[in-house]
Amino acid sequence: MQCLIYPGKLWTRLPLLAGIVAMGTLLGGLPATGQTVFISTGDSAAFDDVPAFNLLEGDVAEVSFDSQPAWKIDTALTYFSKTMFASSENVDACHYLSPYHVAVSTAGSSYIGGVSLSDGDVVEVSYTVVGDTWTVDSAAKIYDENLVSGRDTDALYVLGTGHLLLSFDSSVTLGAVTYDADDIIEIVFHGNDDDGWVLDDHSLWLDGSNVFDEAANIDGFDRIAPGHVLLSTSADESITWDGGNETLTCLEGDIVEVEFDENGTVTNAKTFFPESLFVNGEDIDAITQIPEPATLLLLAVGAAGLLRRRR
To answer: What pTM, to 2 d.p., does this model score?
Structure first.
């Protein structure tokens, strides 16, 4: 699987189109319309602003919201339904690859599209939605939990085939290196269930001890750009930076936006999505995003062939 289109690479390869898009932005052709994020929660959830919508445990919702002048949910809809699993499952990690094409990991053993999974495995799923009917078009396991001693995958970002950013529910030792539950690890591997899975390399991508004031557990993650991420944690945590002059408290249902330098030191942090948007405080289990509007236009104009669409 040759996955994700990373926006930074597209700008590098297509400077002329990037310039056109940038000019369109300057001329007001792409006005800001708030934020959109895909989330899954540990339990069923509801929003005050859209009372008709219920986010079921195991579903992934596409949520559009405004942060100015006040936090407000604009729309919420189910984007990935747990009904595609053979039995009810809780999505523990999710990454948007392209329309109706995601990578997911579940909190327990699961079965989808003819593929059996353990709780730490990652499956790539393409699916179709017609009315209330959700149909799996294809499913393939792209990562096996036994590569890292069977740890449960808590957060996930696909960099490419056999190349993931992961966070786990507990610490794990690979070779002589121990990674904690608040670390994000870069994993390089190859293989399949028939021939076996082989771990080729691993490294620390983000050191949680540089981010959180105390030991934490990352249970939601998305990479915006190098040194720029979205994070959610399984419990209330705090982030301090600027020599102790700035502190952000992040609740278990918050999503926080964090920037850090080449040494992994936090340079800025702010709330991206507050827990207060839920009717009741909820624990966010998975975070992923769609490309920003300018990138979507760029893809549509000149890079459609790079993105595999599954509908």
So the answer is: 0.83
